[in-house]
DNA sequence: CTGAAAGCGCTAACAG
DNA sequence: CTGTTAGCGCTTTCAG
């Protein structure tokens, strides 16, 4: 096994040519005669030659690889984004290296370092919840490696950005609730150090304000992004005694927790309390009653972010430093509201 | 921007040392005096030096990268597997390159070629539905690159294998149906050229046989792996007029299609027809009624497959050629049966 | 049209 | 302890 892999030199030796000649022939360089090319090509096939892209990358000082860092790969949203990224990368003959931060800032930083060491062509990141400083990302920029954030951005770093219109989506969703007649609308919010947490919360507050409900109706319970956080939030709300007539959760998993716990305590959705989420997880349409939510098209986000990154790789300086693409959301009204 | 990245030579020049000395100092080689090491290390930090792993790989003739090829990244099962792989790879300071075949054999072959060109340390594959020949995988073996199949294997290729006990899982599930009193059990099967399709079908047939039901009860409708296939299958069953009392679908998405279509035509689950799936998608517990299915622990599969691959990378010849690890499934009984 | 020489960044073997 | 030399596989430039 492992009979040293075939190189241009092996081919050259057998054909009594110089190895540079072989190299040119393989890349269809005009210098080389058709006859020689044919001989080289056929021997290459026969010997099962595979060009060594590591050597090529070393030579060109650039590898055809995109790095992607996400909090977690098993997560509807991120796996769909990665799928979109891979799709675009594949079309441009780029590889995709996938890393998960597990929401840990240190782990994210380590991944960033190894991506730099691997001299990836560019990096896509959705920032970990615990990341507060942009230092790790600045390192990328110092190395001249293009960076695009998607979904969760680090605001003090100059980079491309692909974000969903969290503010607008939340606002429209809350306005929908108001139009349905709900007046006492609570928000189960995400961590304050994440952009999506903040923006969705702003959308919520501004919708209330716009309809003159900010005095009485606003009520925010803060937590994380998981189903358990939704369960916990509802328990806290319930403990207070005064139930809102609608609850807008920062994302679908949290909404699911809220949803489950509401039924647990014997209330009916939406008669007693309406529930809405954000993100359109596949699960959400299967809940009973199915969840009203806001769709984000993660697969599209992946494609758009990858395309932006590739543009930046192709034209290192032509691109505006902080170009931001805002993906429009759309409201999905189901029976939970 | 892109001020050429810092190399050992830059550090050496500034310190008036030879660059090999710097290289050794950076790797904490015993040759080098503590004083020099300190000087080198501190300048490296200051200049923001990142070792070039491409050069290192070229030198060692081996890269710290694992390739993973799956049919589709957005898919509960595969994204969870990848997550497990990444977890183990991360612990061993390996990177994970993720590729999707979209169930296309050609695309799979192209990915295989670029992985070879990138001289990855090893490859993990769950074979595309349309792949019939093992030729692409043989190429890997010729290059001496370790290979491990997971979930969907290519039987005529010598490689490591991590599979779920599809046969046993299907068998136990069907026996469960029989114990519940169902006698007329149909199977909505997967493509016959996939190992999981075949094995689950065998489990079904053998369970019937064991209980003496093979004469009357067996009825197989063949299709793909998607929700639509389940819908189509149920329509065909329904068109025949004679409804079975239970339906075992090859996987959860197909079961979902069956489930939805049964309700569509006005029948009640499980009173009129029971439905069971395979794979325990997250969705399945949210159906109404929730789906009886078989759990496969995809995250564990990813970890186990990655560990096996790393063992093979570490000990190229010590490993048995076709070592197979069978992951036990467990039955999850819910209200659909 | 083909060949020679040099270099990408790093490491290993050996010499001083 | 530090430096020299050579080479991983490939491409680019320039000479023949």
Structure report:
2 copies of one chain form a homodimer. With 337 residues, chain A is of the alpha/beta class. Chain A folds into 3 domains: 8-51, Orthogonal Bundle (434 Repressor (Amino-terminal Domain)); 61-165 and 298-329, 3-Layer(aba) Sandwich (Rossmann fold), CATH 3.40.50.2300; 166-295, Rossmann fold. Helix content of chain A is 44%, strand content 15%. Chain A has 12 helices and 12 strands. In chain A, the strands form 3 sheets. Chain A has a 6-stranded parallel β-sheet, sandwiched between helices. A 4-stranded parallel β-sheet of chain A has the order 7-6-8-9, sandwiched between helices. The first copy, chain A, has a two-stranded antiparallel ribbon with strand order 10-12. In chain A, β1 (65-70), α5 (76-91) and β2 (95-100) form a beta-alpha-beta unit. In chain A, α6 runs parallel beside α7. The model of chain A has no long low-confidence stretch (mean pLDDT 92). At the A-B interface, α4, α5, β2 and α6 of A face α4, α5, β2 and α6 of B. The structure holds a DNA duplex (16 and 16 nucleotides).
Can you summarize this structure?
Two copies of one chain form a homodimer. Chain A has twelve helices and twelve strands.
Level-1 CATH class name of the largest domain in chain A: Alpha Beta
Return the string of H and E elements of chain A. HHHHEHEHEHEEHEHEHEHEEHEE
Label the overall shape of chain A: elongated
Identify the CATH homologous superfamily of the largest domain in chain A.
Response regulator
Strand content of chain A: 5-15%
Class based on secondary structure composition and strand pairing of chain A? alpha/beta
Indicate the percent of residues in helices of chain A: 40-55%
pLDDT < 50 runs, ≥5 residues of chain A = none
Strand order of the largest sheet of chain A: 2-1-3-4-5-11
CATH topology of the largest domain in chain A: Rossmann fold
Give the N-terminus to C-terminus distance of chain A in angstroms: 63 Å
Largest sheet of chain A: 6 strands, parallel
The count of DSSP E runs of length 2 or more, i.e. the number of strands of chain A, is 12
Oligomer: homodimer
Largest interface (C-beta under 8 Å): A-B, 55 and 55 residues
Do you know the CATH architecture of the largest domain in chain A?
A: 3-Layer(aba) Sandwich
Structural Rg of chain A: 26 Å
- Total tally of structural domains of chain A: 3
């Amino acid at each position: 096994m492992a009979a040293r892999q075939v190189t241009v030199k092996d081919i050259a030796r057998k054909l009594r040519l110089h190895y540079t000649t072989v190299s040119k022939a393989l890349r269809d360089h005009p210098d080389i005669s058709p006859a020689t090319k044919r001989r080289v090509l056929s021997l290459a096939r026969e010997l099962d030659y595979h060009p060594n892209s590591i050597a090529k990358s070393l030579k060109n000082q650039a590898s055809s690889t995109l790095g992607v860092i996400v909090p977690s790969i098993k997560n509807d949203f991120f796996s769909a984004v990665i799928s979109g990224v891979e799709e675009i990368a594949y079309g441009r003959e780029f590889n995709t290296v996938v890393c998960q931060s597990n929401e840990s800032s240190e782990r994210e930083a380590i991944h960033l370092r190894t991506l730099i060491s691997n001299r990836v062509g560019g990096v896509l990141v959705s920032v970990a919840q615990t990341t507060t400083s942009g230092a790790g990302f600045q390192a990328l920029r110092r190395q001249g490696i293009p960076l695009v954030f998607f979904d969760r951005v680090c605001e003090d770093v100059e980079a491309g950005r692909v974000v969903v219109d969290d503010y607008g989506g939340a606002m429209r969703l809350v306005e929908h609730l108001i139009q349905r007649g709900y007046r006492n609308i609570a928000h189960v919010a995400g961590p304050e150090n994440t952009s999506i947490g903040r923006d969705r919360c702003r959308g919520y507050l501004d919708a209330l304000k716009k309809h003159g409900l900010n005095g009485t109706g606003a009520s925010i319970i803060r937590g994380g992004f998981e189903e358990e956080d939704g369960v916990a939030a509802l328990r806290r709300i319930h403990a207070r005694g005064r139930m809102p007539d609608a609850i807008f959760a920062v994302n679908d998993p949290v909404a699911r927790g809220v949803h489950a716990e509401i039924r647990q305590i014997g209330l009916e959705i939406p008669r007693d309390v309406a529930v809405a989420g954000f993100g359109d997880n596949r699960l959400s349409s299967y809940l009973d009653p199915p969840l009203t939510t806001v769709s984000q098209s993660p697969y599209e986000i992946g494609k758009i972010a990858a395309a932006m990154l590739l543009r930046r790789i192709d034209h290192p300086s032509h691109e505006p430093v902080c170009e931001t693409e805002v993906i429009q959301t759309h409201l999905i009204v189901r029976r939970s509201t």
